[in-house]
Structure to design on (486 residues):
């Protein structure tokens, strides 16, 4: 997907279309997650400190990520890829490898190009966003092709052209060559892929070791036999937050851990799992990171159980120096099983017994029992809500909109939706306005095109409708495809 987070924000906010949009952490320690192509013209790049981005592009719209929206769109795209082939290897929310041969796409450049173009059309129809497609005989080359295709394009690398294409490219183009390896090779006089091929396998093995050196030599020659590996089962679910200012107050830290536990359980339930092991992650003021875990008797997706376990783990961590990051995770995942039901039944029985004991004890009229007071759900104070820039809200009178900014007891909202034909009106409210409330992201596209269901124009077969019968042998441009990331 092209500039995924920023493109999704532009699609959902008509007033931002065609303008610089930067998504990421907005605090003093924030970094850029994604910059729109309009912002990239000013030199803004992913992973750049947000303060630097503001200096380069002060007039951009700076927004906090909305991962719920991004995950929803990603799932729609991955579903399309799954109809194209059973072998889909997601790399992130916005990038995946696809084995076209395993999906029954006919061997050859023409069939591969047809499948790629149809995929691009379907993605736009379903999500309203653009995606770039790289087609080649291997994962490495498909990735390179997808980078060349950005934005909103398709590039196919023909068999036999691989070495000539790779030769002038920087060594960092190849998988496994990061900053350290790249610098090591530069000191040895190798800056391009052609330099690696000319150096020979023995020299690369001497410099980088047998495994890495031999692998790099094969890739420099255009050979990459790594298969597309279908998505593996999720092994854990976690959430974490980095704070703009170190937290010192123990009550505040405990509150944040509770919120993270609730968010983690929401994600756990959305994935259809429960888990046995609760994990707490704490990064302290000196950047030291501590991890604590507790394994329960049975799997759970109960937010109260996860909160309590995370709280117990926090009790074992010294936070007096300050905390800059907190995380809560659940591992040892299982699908909803009978074991879960037994555990829930046991908890319900224990709760009933505790309630019965409480009823046996007479309480003075008008007084609340300690148990009830402890179990009462906290009531949210509207004045304490965090109105995050870019996040969705709804107003009782004006309808859906999004936060443009907040501060000094006020929140500014632009009222528009993804299907608005013109930019919406802007209004400012008190942060505790009773008519204003957070809301869920709206779909980027109102109606899914028939292409999303694998349908093709009359008389034409859709590549997405083809189902695999057997895996074919051989390479060529039909053997691999890659979706692009920003």
């Amino acid at each position: 997907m092209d500039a995924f987070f920023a493109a999704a924000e532009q699609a959902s906010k008509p007033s931002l279309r065609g303008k610089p949009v930067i998504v990421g952490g907005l605090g003093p320690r924030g970094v850029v997650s994604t910059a729109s192509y309009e912002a990239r013209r000013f030199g803004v790049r992913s992973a750049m400190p947000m303060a630097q981005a503001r200096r380069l592009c002060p007039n951009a719209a700076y927004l906090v990520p909305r991962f719920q929206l991004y995950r929803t769109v990603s799932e729609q795209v991955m579903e399309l890829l799954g109809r194209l082939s059973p072998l889909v290897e997601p790399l992130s929310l916005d990038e995946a490898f696809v084995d076209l041969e395993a999906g029954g796409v006919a061997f050859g450049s023409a069939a591969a190009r047809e499948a790629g173009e149809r995929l691009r059309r379907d993605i736009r129809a379903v999500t309203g966003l653009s995606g770039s497609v790289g087609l080649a005989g291997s994962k490495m080359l498909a990735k390179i092709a997808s980078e060349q295709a950005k934005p909103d394009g398709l590039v196919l690398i023909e068999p036999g052209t691989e070495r000539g294409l790779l030769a002038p490219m920087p060594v960092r183009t190849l998988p496994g060559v990061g900053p350290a390896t790249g610098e090591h090779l530069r000191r040895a006089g190798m800056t391009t892929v052609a330099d690696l091929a000319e150096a020979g396998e023995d020299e690369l093995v001497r410099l980088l070791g047998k495994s890495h050196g031999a692998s790099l030599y094969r890739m420099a020659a255009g050979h990459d036999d790594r298969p597309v590996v279908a998505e593996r089962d999720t092994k854990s679910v976690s959430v974490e937050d980095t704070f703009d200012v170190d937290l010192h107050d123990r009550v505040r830290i405990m509150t944040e851990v509770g919120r993270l536990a609730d968010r983690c359980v929401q994600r756990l339930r959305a994935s259809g799992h429960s888990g046995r092991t609760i994990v707490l992650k704490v990064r302290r003021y000196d950047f030291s990171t501590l991890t604590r875990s507790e394994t329960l008797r049975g799997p759970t997706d109960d937010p109260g159980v996860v909160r309590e376990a995370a709280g117990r783990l926090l009790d074992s961590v010294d936070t007096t120096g300050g905390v800059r990051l907190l995380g809560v995770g659940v591992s040892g995942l299982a699908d909803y099983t009978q074991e879960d039901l037994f555990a829930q039944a046991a908890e319900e029985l224990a709760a009933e017994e505790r309630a019965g004991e409480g009823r046996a004890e007479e309480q003075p009229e008008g007084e609340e029992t300690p148990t009830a007071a402890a179990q009462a759900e906290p009531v949210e104070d509207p004045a304490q809500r965090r109105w995050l820039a870019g996040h969705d809200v709804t107003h009782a009178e004006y309808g859906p909109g999004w936060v443009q900014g907040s501060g000094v007891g006020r929140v500014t909202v632009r009222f528009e939706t993804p299907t608005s034909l013109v930019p919406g009106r802007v209004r400012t409210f008190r942060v505790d306005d009773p008519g204003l409330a957070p809301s869920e992201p709206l779909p980027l596209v109102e109606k899914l095109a028939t292409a999303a269901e694998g349908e093709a124009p009359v008389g034409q077969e859709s590549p997405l409708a083809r189902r695999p019968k057997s895996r074919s042998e051989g390479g060529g441009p039909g053997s691999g495809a890659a979706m692009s990331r920003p």
